């Protein structure tokens, strides 16, 4: 068998180095694929979380809008003069002019006890 020259040794070394580099690259490629799959899973989970948060925010927005509408109705009804308020105002004015409890019951439709209380409050001392 003939001895190898320096050129043969360099070629064999380079071939071995190329094989080694190829194996390292294959390992890195496999690792990269695993990392990509893991990242895809994370992205899918984050996307699901984002969608859930979006649906929740939309639901909360609808609920806030509904509550604002209800609040406006309550505010309007609280600020609007009530029929009972007008009746009590009229009864108070009549009692101040000297009307009796019976007259307040008859004219304003008040309960007898309310009319007597209002007359006693408006009666001069």
Automatic annotation (TrEMBL):
Residue spans crossing the bilayer: 6-28
The alphabetized UniProt keywords are: Membrane, Transmembrane, Transmembrane helix
Q: Name one Pfam family in it.
A: DUF2802
Q: Where does the source fall among the domains of life?
A: Bacteria
Question: How is this protein named in the record?
Answer: DUF2802 domain-containing protein
Q: What is the lineage of its organism?
A: Bacteria, Pseudomonadati, Pseudomonadota, Gammaproteobacteria, Oceanospirillales
């Amino acid at each position: 068998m003939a001895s190898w020259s320096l050129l043969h040794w360099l070629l064999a070394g380079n071939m071995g180095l190329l094989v080694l580099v190829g194996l390292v690259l294959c390992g890195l490629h496999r690792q990269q694929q695993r990392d990509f799959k893991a990242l895809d899973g994370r992205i899918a989970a984050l996307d699901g979380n984002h969608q859930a948060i979006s649906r929740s925010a939309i639901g909360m927005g609808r609920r806030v809008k509904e509550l604002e509408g209800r609040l406006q109705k309550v505010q309007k009804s609280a600020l609007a003069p009530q029929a009972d308020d007008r009746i009590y105002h009229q009864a108070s004015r009549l009692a101040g002019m000297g009307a009796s409890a019976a007259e307040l019951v008859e004219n304003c439709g008040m309960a007898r006890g309310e009319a007597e209380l209002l007359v006693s409050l408006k009666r001069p001392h």
